[in-house]
Amino acid sequence: MKFGYVVLIFFLSILNHFMIIGYQGIERFDPDIWFVNVTNDLDSTCYRGALANDLSNRLITQDMTKQEVINLLGEPERIGQKDMKYEMDYSLGFCSMADYNSLIIHLDSSERVEDVHTRQH
Hints:
- By secondary structure, the protein is of the alpha+beta class.
- It has helices at residues 2-21, 31-34, 40-43, 52-59, 66-73, and strands at 78-82, 85-93, 101-107, 113-120.
- The model has no long low-confidence stretch (mean pLDDT 84).
């Protein structure tokens, strides 16, 4: 169990380091990182930020269905709807040194991916 904490602290230190130089494009998607149990301490880090580029450029493709995205990433923190289009919001953590960031997935009226990008809140 102690080894697990050491690994977690090391991982968080690496993420924090890359947060300073920019968080996108560092890691390939890893479900173990994406689905980690978010504690208060972890929430103040960029715990998912390193995965954002791989998700938006390789794994989440146009015309994927809403259900396919949910199968890959789980339920989003927020789903908004405006004018028959949807926006799925997945937290990336505190990545910008000033605020939280999210992976935003826009869906068209048939609930298929139109666009993927990150947003600072």
